Amino acid sequence: MKNTLNMLLQLGLDKNEAQEIICRVCECKKSDIYLNNSLRVNSKQSEKIKEIALLRKSGKPLAYCMNRAYFYEKEFFVNENVLIPRFDTEILIETILKNENDEEKNILELGTGSGIICETLQNERQNWNIVSVDISQNALFVAKKNCQSKILLVNSDKFCAISPENQFDIIVSNPPYIESKTIKTLDVSVKNFEPTIALDGGENGLFFYDYLAKNAKIFLKLGGRIYVEIGFNQGESVPEIFEENGFLNVSLTKDLGKNPRVVSGESLSDFSN
Question: Who contacts 130 (Cβ-Cβ below 8 Å, separation ≥6)?
């Protein structure tokens, strides 16, 4: 195994990533690479390791190379039809769990992606009834691999397939929030591999927040709440959008780096008129 590790390092791979590839393919622990002399890499495993290594060398993110990523201490299937889960999104999960109890609630997620948000919330709140929508059928195929059958996955362009009569206690979303002009400046591993549709938030990065602030209230019960992840530079603009559209008790949660990360607000008025 040490020889295989050295081979990957000679290819220019990061040591931690090289170890992860070997452990994934050989189903072993990192310590086995150095301490378990009885383990050998067979020819089939060797070919698979080389295949993944060459994909990684091409710039493809390791998560896509191995079709797996970790989020909230759980492994999820991912491919290039969905974003790779980020730690930042765990702040969204933690904010919701901190504010919401385990009583039965109806939840709507806008933008399923890989399904990490709805699946994590369902695991943590078994009494919740969750509906999650995405415009991408390919993304929903990925989410179906990750989500338990209790979660209802729906192919929908935003709220289009959701009836206003279906009133929800909570709406959650991690929408695209990067300015269109900024996409081309992102790291190659992002702009060349991750789906643009899940990144591009329009000219000013605020398109989906405007849409949510104007339309989410139609689907929320009185007293219902909305939770959205935001970009690090949107700590003033996004709360303002929700306040201007009648949401009350709008609050901002920062991540561990003290950057704005989650905005929440309450629908306490009758928006039907």
Answer: 107, 108, 109, 118, 121, 122, 150, 151, 152
Instruction: Label residues 191-215 b or e (16+ Cβ within 10 Å = b).
Output: eebbbeebbbbbeebbbbbbbbbeb
Q: Please, are residues 69 and 76 in contact by the beta-carbon 8 Å criterion? A: yes
Instruction: For residue 176, report the phi and psi dihedrals to the nearest 5 degrees.
Output: -60, 130
> Which regions of the chain does DSSP assign to beta strands (E)?
69-71, 74-76, 105-110, 128-134, 152-155, 168-173, 220-229, 248-254, 260-267
pLDDT band at 270 (very low <50, low <70, confident <90, very high): low
Backbone angles phi, psi at 265, to 5 degrees: -160, 160
- In this model, does residue 88 exceed pLDDT 70? yes
Residue with tokens 């939770």, as numbered in its chain: 227
> Is residue 130 very low, low, confident or very high in pLDDT (cuts 50, 70, 90)?
very high
Residues 133 and 109 sit within 8 Å (Cβ to Cβ): yes
| Coil vs helix vs strand at 152 | strand
